[in-house]
Amino acid sequence: MVSVVIGTQWGDEGKGKVVDLLSKNANFVVRFHGGNNAGHTVIVDGKKYPFHLIPSGILHPKAIGVIANGVILDPEVLVSEIEMLKEAGMKLKGKLFISERCHLILPYHKALDLAYENARGKKKLGTTGRGIGPTLADKVSYNGIRIYELLDWKLFVEKFTFQTKIKNRILKTFAVKPINAKKELEKLSAFRKILLPFVADTYLFLNEALETSKNILMEGAHGVMLDTDFSPYPFSTGSNVITGAVNTGAGIPLQKISEVIGVVKAYTSRVGGGPIPTEIFDKTADAIREKGKEFGTTTGRPRRIGWLDLEAVKFACEVSGVTEIAITKIDILSGLEKIKVCIGYKLNGKSVSYSSCGYQELAKLKPVYKKLSGWKKEIAGITKFSELPKNCQSYIRFMEKFLGVKISIISTGPERKEYIKI
Ligand code: IMP
Q1: Which atom of ligand 1 has the smallest separation from the CA of 273?
Q2: C or N: which end of the chain has fewer Cβ atoms within 10 Å?
Q3: Is the pLDDT of residue 295 over 80?
Q4: Are both 111 and 76 inside the same structural domain?
Q5: Whose Cα sits closest to atom 10 in ligand 1?
Q6: What's the domain count of the chain?
């Protein structure tokens, strides 16, 4: 059984919580794309575990965490997450595996990411500054360095020194301080010793798991609206986020997938630049941001807020073959008198679809809203659908009908036990 969790919006949908719930029955929990630009937080018994690279489902005793080939890795971040889990008492031997095919995010990638952003001035994209774009650019231009090279230190030093020389020339044109290869190699050598025991052929490993009918949970990162092909590029992340990335990023054939769970936050949020058709700037936005703690887990930036955009979410569900929906953070909307939901777009008076719009159209169009009545009662922690206020039930049913996909999980709070299964 292969289950896939996909974010259907701009990331930060609360996938960590959903993955954590579903990992209960998983033998393997797998990250297959992106890097430490993602942030998944899981809260267990009041203790917060922020993850950026290690699959958050690893917190379940039975689940083995796998970082498959599609993930790009910052060795320093990975080591700090390994240390966090060790400090929490977790024995990681046989519990965490990392593909030797993963490309490495190296110090010059982070420097380049920031240099490009600064050069864009007022037209900044708002990247997370984690070196994602430059690392993926190196990957496809045959300049990348993988864990594979890290296995052979001499080879790694040779490649790293060559790449640092080239990158320092580029950094010089941006008037940015060059990378000190010797110093960085010392740090990387220490990280290498911690990481190497976890390196494995994760492809073989996962295919054996398929043959022996193990439960595999694919932990998607980011959100479909950031997919490098299906977003309003360049307001994107560098990787593919849609379900297809399961195949390219972990070697799992798509026909082996049994279910795709699309995570939908009950409203919209986004960090970074680019158009958000349903963005709001008023007191309601501030209230949602504060109550929903909408500040980036990766960068701490305040997130931009908008009403739920069902036109965009419908597209995300279609392109990713979503079979079930998990709604998150619906409790944050309690207390609002009216709740708006976007059910279509109009551009120059004509109906247009999300997929037909580039960033210029998305910035100009007018959302078509359906106004629904809100509910007063706080619903945090409710575990039965029948106990939700009637208007909240109607909001959920409206969403389900519009999207044409069954809603099976409703998260009503950040803690593991705060959810409704229907
Ligand atoms: P990058 O992925 O760091 O290059 O950033 C590109 C864009 O994607 C920026 O707008 C980021 O804020 C956004 N982004 C990337 N990953 C995530 C995520 O996991 N959640 C929210 N936004 C993200």
Answers
A1: 10
A2: C
A3: yes
A4: no
A5: 272
A6: 2
Regarding whether 254 and 370 lie in a shared domain, the answer is: yes
Query: 38 CA distance to ligand 1 centroid (A)?
Result: 7
Report the distance separating Cα 392 and Cα 331, nearest Å. 9
Same domain, 150 and 260: no
- Among candidate residues 168, 197, 226, the one where a domain is terminated: 197
Q: How confident is the model at residue 303 (pLDDT cuts 50, 70, 90)?
A: very high
Q: What's the confidence (pLDDT) of residue 254?
A: 96
Judge if 298 and 326 occupy the same domain: yes
Classify residue 119: in a domain, yes or no: yes
Catalytic residues: 12, 40
- Domain holding 224, by residue range, is 2-91+202-421
Q: Report whether residue 228 contacts ligand 1, using a CB cutoff of 6 Å.
A: no
Assess whether 285 and 392 both reside in one domain: yes
Instruction: Please check whether residues 74 and 209 belong to one and the same domain.
Output: yes
Pocket test for ligand 1, best of 9, 37, 110 (most atoms within 8 A of CB): 37
Q: What would the pLDDT profile of 361-405 be if each residue is shown by its tens digit?
A: 999 999 999 999 999 999 999 999 999 999 999 999 999 999 999
101 is a domain residue: no
Ligand 1: distance of its center to the CA of 391 in Å?
A: 33
Phi and psi dihedrals of 229, rounded to 5?
A: -100, -40
Q: Verify that 292 and 350 share a domain, yes or no.
A: yes
Residues 255 and 305 grouped into a single domain: yes
